[in-house]
Amino acid sequence: MSRRYFGTDGIRGRANVSPMTAEVALKVGMAAGLHFQDGSHVHRVVIGKDTRLSCYMIENALAAGFVSVGMEVLLLGPIPTPGVATLTRSMRADLGVMISASHNSFEDNGIKLFGPDGFKLSDKDEIEIEAGMDGDLNAGRAGSSSLGRVRRLQGAIGRYSEFCKSAYPRGLRLDGLRIVLDAANGAGYRVAPEALWELGAEVIPIGVEPNGTNINLNCGSTSTAVMQKAVHDYRADLGIALDGDADRVLISDENGKIVDGDQIMALVADWMLEHGELRGGGIVGTVMSNLGLQRFMESKGQVLERTKVGDRYVVERMRDKGINMGGEQSGHIIFSDHSTTGDGLIAALQVLAVLVERKKPMSELGRQFSPVPQLLKNVRHQGGEPLEADSVKEALLAAEERLGENGRLVVRKSGTEPLIRIMAEHDDNALVHAVVAELETTIQRAAG
Fold first, then answer.
1. Domains defined along the chain, listed by start
2. Which end of the chain is less crowded, N or C, counting CB atoms within 10 A of the terminal residue's CB?
């Protein structure tokens, strides 16, 4: 079934332009509130947000929608996305909502929904909520005496901080470590540096002065140059870069070299395997995970399960296979022993645990395998279905034949932006660049 609102990670778009308007947010609140009302108890929803200017508009509209169908609303304020998932469960809420467009610029915003178990919604739930949004919501309105209430939950950040710190092994401390922490002027700007400091680290915080429009602006996991320079300037042991809603993380070693999600997963998977804590016979990645990671896991007698892009699909496979670790190259890492969704701070703490226990520099720990040459290009389009053009289909078949059994090709539409993403990998770097360049040109022509 085609979708009008939900993409690969909730609803996302330009703020104050459909579907990211107050009117749509109001409908989301009403439809989602009605969908999750089951039983005679007081129904409750928790709402968190990042630091975008438009969050005020979306937050108020969502709250009005939930209240109008009789739900109690708890406002968490700026808090990482995984904090919403955690508090949804701990507060025994019927639903959790995060207002964020993750790594996108401030002009965009989004709405992510979590069920009472703290997991992102299934496709089935999203389709049913969409149907409710487009249906007659008047029948679900609460009576005047049954309207919900809105209040702010005090101490939400503190609750989440304690939860994150509990995921760091007892008996280990961060004393003596100098860490640059880039919070992307986003949702983790308070909790992340405070948690690291409380565990004993010397923290050099950057990207911790949000003003509503500077989230992800030349900072965070999508723009790591400032963090890498700070690691060098302050002679730090490593750098940690979160994205706008702090559900993903990238690491810089002491030399300023980036350690991506694939290398993080390899490092921590090896450590968990050594401690007998890796379950399910491997880890879960996506079609974008480097072939080098797959070969690394196979060398350890483990598998790399692949899913389509989107951390909720990674989580679904983890639950299905009984695997307790998975993630994406971009830095969404899920440790199901601790969290139900990607958590940048918890992932960073697992890396720090390995660093402290093995007493080795990040430059040595951050290269667990030699990556297979991989190239990713994005082609912007104005709608339509450029991948359905005959010229593109023919070019894709030819590219797959050239890469053969020792390479991989992934071409897909982005679920969050009007982009066609092209990824190719092969041991022959020149071949990878040639294949991607040809596909890029062909798709650009088809996209007009």
1. 6-154 (3.40.120.10), 159-257 (3.40.120.10), 259-344 (3.40.120.10), 374-447 (3.30.310.50)
2. N
What would the mean pLDDT of 328-341 be, rounded to a whole number? 95
Q: How far is it, in rounded angstroms, from Cα 245 to Cα 444? A: 32
For 155: left if phi > 0, alpha if psi spans -120 to 50, otherwise beta; the answer is left
In b/e form, how buried is each residue of 30-61, taking b as 16+ CB within 10 angstroms?
bbbbbbbbeeeeebbbbbbbbbbebbebbbbb
Q: What whole-number distance in Å separates Cα of residue 344 and Cα of residue 79?
A: 12
Q: Indicate if 299 belongs to the active site.
A: no
Question: What is the per-residue pLDDT across 408-431, written as a single tens digit (0 to 9) for each?
Answer: 999 988 876 788 999 999 999 999
pLDDT tops 70 at residue 2? no
Rounded Cα distance, 431 and 187, in Å: 41
Percent of the chain's residues with pLDDT above 70: 99
pTM recorded for the entire structure: 0.91
Q: Which one from 68, 102, 336, 339 is the annotated catalytic residue?
A: 102
Predicted local confidence at residue 15, as pLDDT: 97
Chain Cα centroid distance, residue 119: 13
Nearest 5°: CA angle at 35, between 29 and 39? 115
> Residue 327: which pLDDT band, with cuts at 50, 70 and 90?
very high
pLDDT tens across 288-304, in order?
999 999 999 999 999 99
Query: Residues 246-264: pLDDT tens digits?
Result: 999 999 999 999 999 999 9
Spatial CA neighbour of 244 closest among 49, 413, 17: 49
